[in-house]
Design brief:
3-stranded antiparallel sheet; alpha+beta
C-alpha cells in the first residue's frame, strides 16, 4: 500500500522510574488534513490547555454528524444507524466494527461513543469535517476498496 505516513510522538504519563514509551503512529494524509483543519490559527503551538474541556455531544452535534454524507451507515460493514466513531478518521461505525477498531489501538483508531463519551471541541470539529464518504473516497483513491478488511484497511 502507498499511504502517506508521518510519525507522531505521544508523551506517556508513566512513573519516573519507568522509561517513557513513544509509539510510532501511521497516519494517512486524510487524517493529517482533518487534524490540520481543526488547529486554531490564533493558538500558537504548545500553548493549548493541558486539560481540554470535555463535553458530551449535544443532540444537535449528533444530528450534524449523522447527516454528513455516508454517515447514515457503518463505514466498514454498511449497518444502518452507527453509534460509534473514530476520531482518527472522522468516521462512524457500528458496535461490532468498533471492537475491531479498538483492537487496532488508539494510535491508529481512537474510538468514541457518539452518545455516551465526552469529546473535546477539537474532536467534535474533526467529526464535523470528516465523514464516511470522504474517507471511503480517499481510500479508494489509494487503491483500497470497500471489500478490504478493517485491519488491512487501517493498519
Amino acid at each position: 500500500r502507498s499511504l502517506d505516513t508521518i510519525c507522531v510522538t505521544f508523551s506517556s504519563h508513566l512513573p519516573s522510574h519507568r522509561p517513557t514509551i513513544q509509539p510510532r503512529r501511521q497516519t494517512t494524509h486524510y487524517q493529517t488534513k482533518l487534524e490540520a483543519a481543526t488547529h486554531s490559527q490564533s493558538t500558537p503551538p504548545n500553548t493549548q490547555q493541558q486539560t481540554p474541556n470535555m463535553v458530551q455531544m449535544t443532540p444537535g452535534d449528533q444530528a450534524m454528524v449523522k447527516v454528513i454524507p455516508g454517515n447514515d451507515q457503518c463505514c466498514d460493514c454498511g449497518m444502518k444507524n452507527p453509534q460509534w466513531a473514530s476520531v482518527s478518521f472522522g468516521t462512524v461505525f457500528c458496535l461490532d466494527c468498533s471492537g475491531v477498531h479498538r483492537s487496532l489501538g488508539v494510535h491508529i483508531s481512537f474510538v468514541r461513543s457518539i452518545a455516551m463519551d465526552s469529546w473535546t471541541p477539537q474532536q467534535l470539529q474533526i467529526m464535523k469535517l470528516g465523514g464516511n464518504k470522504k474517507c471511503k473516497d480517499y481510500l479508494a483513491s489509494k487503491g483500497i476498496g470497500a471489500g478490504v478488511g478493517i485491519k488491512q484497511k487501517y493498519e
